[in-house]
Design goal:
Structural class: alpha/beta
Shape: globular
Distance between the termini: 28 Å
Number of strands: 14
Strand order of the largest sheet: 2-1-3-5-6-13
Strand content: 15-25%
Helix content: 25-40%
Oligomer: single chain
CATH topology of one domain: Rossmann fold
CATH superfamily of one domain: Response regulator
CATH class of one domain: Alpha Beta
Number of helices: 11
CATH architecture of one domain: 3-Layer(aba) Sandwich
C-alpha cells in the first residue's frame, strides 16, 4: 500500500479561490498580517502561514497555549507538535513550543492560558489548566488524550507475523529522566506485550534500548545497527518507535547489499513523511527519514489527537471545575513495501 498523497503548496491564486477573497486581499494580508481582522481574513493568513509564505504570526487578541516537550529537543517528538501547529493556525490560537526545563521562564514571558504536555512530569504547573498527551496517564490527576501507540506497534507485529516473521528486533531510545516520565512506548515491559499478545517468542536480545539525544543520535544509531548485524540468529524484521530511527538501518544495509524488504523488513512509527513540508534545515535527520526509499511502513498519528486535546484544554480554560477526562485514539496503520515475507536465507 502506498502512502497517502501529501498536501501540495498552494499558489496565491489558489489561496484566493479557496478562501473566496480577491487576490489583492491576499497580498494585503501578506504585506501586513495584522490586516486579518475578521474570520475570513484570518483563514487567509492561516493558509499563507501553512504554505510557507508567512512566518508564524502571534495575534495580540488571540489566546496563547504552550506545548511542553522533553528537555533536550529529542527528535522523536515532532509529529504531535506539527499537528497541533496546524490546528492552532486554523483556530487562530497562538502556540509556543517549550522544553520542560524552561517552562517556568516561558510561562512568565508569554503568559499562556493553558499547557499541553507531550511528557509526564512528576509535578504539573498547577497555576494553569493542563492537558497531557499520554495514552495511559491517570485521568484523576489530569485530562489525558493519547494515541494507542502500543496498540499500533502491536498491529505492526501482527502484520509481520502474518508475513512469516518469527524473530522481530525492536530498537527504542532510553529517555528516562528523574523528573520526567515518558510515554509507555519507551518502557520495555510494554513492548514485551507486543510479542506475547501476537504469540511470538520473546527474548531479551531482541530488545535494544540505548540512551540517546540529538547530539548523540548518529553515534548511538551506528551502535544499534552494529548490534543487530552481530546477532547470530539475525531477526528478519526491525521495528522502531519513530521513523527517524530507521534511517541508520537503511543506510548500513544499502552499503552491505542487504535489501529491504527482501532480506529484512523495516517499520517505524509516526509517519514523519507526512510533515516534510513543515521541516526546515534544522530538521535534517527528520527530512532524511521522510525521504527513505522504499517508504516506511508506519503508524500515522490521528489528526483528531491534536484537535481533541485542544478542545479539552479550552474547556478547562473556560471552566476550571470541569472533570478530568481520559481518551484513547487508535493510530492509522500505513503498510508499504518496506515490509514483506520473511526471508529464509539470512546472512
Amino acid at each position: 500500500m502506498s502512502l497517502r498523497e501529501q498536501k501540495k503548496v498552494y499558489t496565491m491564486n489558489e489561496i484566493s479561490a479557496e478562501c473566496g477573497v480577491s487576490l489583492s486581499t491576499v497580498y494585503r494580508i501578506l504585506r501586513d498580517p495584522s490586516r486579518a481582522n475578521n474570520p475570513l481574513r484570518r483563514q487567509v493568513r492561516a493558509h499563507l502561514i501553512q504554505n510557507g509564505y508567512l512566518p508564524e504570526y502571534h495575534s495580540d487578541d488571540a489566546i496563547t497555549i504552550v506545548n511542553v516537550i522533553t528537555s533536550g529537543n529529542h527528535l522523536h517528538q515532532s509529529s504531535f507538535h506539527f499537528l497541533l501547529q496546524k490546528v492552532c493556525l486554523e483556530r487562530q490560537i497562538n502556540l509556543v513550543l517549550c522544553e520542560h526545563s524552561n517552562l517556568e521562564k516561558t510561562v512568565h514571558s508569554v503568559k499562556p492560558s493553558g499547557l499541553i504536555y507531550n511528557i509526564c512530569p512528576e509535578t504539573f504547573y498547577e497555576k494553569l489548566p493542563s492537558v497531557i498527551i499520554h495514552a495511559g496517564y491517570n485521568s484523576a490527576m489530569c485530562t489525558s488524550v493519547g494515541e494507542d501507540d502500543i496498540g499500533g506497534i502491536s498491529a505492526i507485529f501482527a502484520k509481520l507475523k502474518d508475513l512469516g516473521h518469527k524473530r522481530i528486533f525492536y530498537f527504542s531510545p532510553d529517555l528516562y529522566d528523574d523528573d520526567q516520565m515518558f510515554q509507555d512506548r519507551f518502557i520495555a515491559d510494554r513492548i514485551k506485550r507486543c510479542y506475547v499478545l501476537n504469540g511470538l517468542e520473546f527474548k531479551e536480545e531482541l530488545l535494544c534500548f540505548r540512551k540517546i539525544s540529538r547530539e548523540t543520535h548518529e553515534e548511538v544509531m551506528s551502535e544499534a545497527v552494529k548490534y543487530f548485524l552481530s546477532m547470530e540468529d539475525r531477526p528478519t524484521a526491525i521495528v522502531t518507535p519513530s521513523d527517524v530511527y530507521c534511517e541508520a538501518f537503511y543506510n548500513r544495509f544499502r552499503q552491505l547489499g542487504i535489501k529491504i524488504p527482501q532480506d529484512v523488513s523495516v517499520a517505524g512509527y509516526g509517519n514523519i513523511r507526512r510533515y516534510k513540508d513543515f521541516m526546515d534545515e534544522s530538521s535534517l535527520p527528520l527530512k532524511r527519514a521522510a525521504a527513505l526509499e522504499p517508504p516506511l511502513t508506519t503508524c500515522d498519528m490521528p489528526e483528531e489527537l491534536a484537535s481533541t486535546a485542544l478542545d479539552f484544554l479550552l474547556e478547562k480554560i473556560n471552566n476550571p471545575l470541569v472533570r478530568n477526562k481520559k481518551l484513547l485514539i487508535m493510530p492509522q496503520m500505513i503498510f508499504t513495501n518496506s515490509i514483506g515475507p520473511a526471508s529464509e536465507n539470512r546472512n
